[in-house]
Input
Amino acid sequence: MDGHPPALGSLLLLFSTMVGCPAASEPSGPAPVEQVTFTSEGVTLAGEIHFPARAGPFPAVVLVHGSGPVTRDGNRPLIGPFLTRGAAVLVYDKRGTGRSGGHFRGIGPRNSDSLVRLLGRDAAAALGLLSRHPRIDPRRLGLAGGSQAGWIIPAAAAEFAIRFAVILSGPLVSVGEEALFSDAFERSNLPLTKVDSVMAGVVGLRGYDPVPDLHRTTGAVYWILGARDRSIPAVRSAAIAESLATVLGRTSWRVDLLPTGDHNLIDPTGRSLAFQPAVVRWLDEQLTATGLAPTPPDR
Output
């Protein structure tokens, strides 16, 4: 996906419009921000925690990056939706970008087994920081992000117990399968009805596959996908998510496949799509419920 990094700005802004309405109990006022650093795999990563303008302890979410050498700024549109619903938000610079140490490397089939898990451990380290913070409720920690985050979030959740995750236009196929799909469809007019024949051509190295890690993910997950997505095989990804939810008995997992949505969840006329109110209700349930997931271990 790093070979063809999609523009996620409108996707994240759309989600912020969808769930950005303040929760009824959330007072207005400036949100306190705390600059933080944390260590992952010998590298110091830099970010910031945004807190609601009231007393805690708060549920909290770590915002996970999409593809490319993106900093915390790439995920800023996602801060508001969670903050106004009473959750603290940790946003950080991706490894090798901004003020974070390490080296940025793009993800492809050959390096993805190690690199997706490395980025997953970075997100897990961010969760660890939140779990030890005196203003955070460690029973209500989650992850959210778009596109490439659809791989990184399962890898992180396999390392660190979460209460919830929200994934926008994130693939549930392997890195090799996504690469084949995007090579065929992202910059062509090939009809999406040809997906099955194109995907049948997957041979050799597939790289990271999120399905095994999703088997280990016990928290609630909500996927939002667009059936007209030409960056990832969204219809196939939705089918995988629904099948996993059934097989694993994950009653809190949800999948919304928007029939006319593209990778940015926008229809062919450029109109932003309306989301079902169920998304907002589901998110509020995850942010307010306690005692429904194991307390994450110290890391």
User: Anything to note?
Assistant: Residues 9-288 form a domain with the Rossmann fold fold (CATH 3.40.50.1820). Confidence is low (pLDDT under 50) at residues 23-28, 292-299. The CA atoms of residues 107 and 117 lie 11 Å apart.
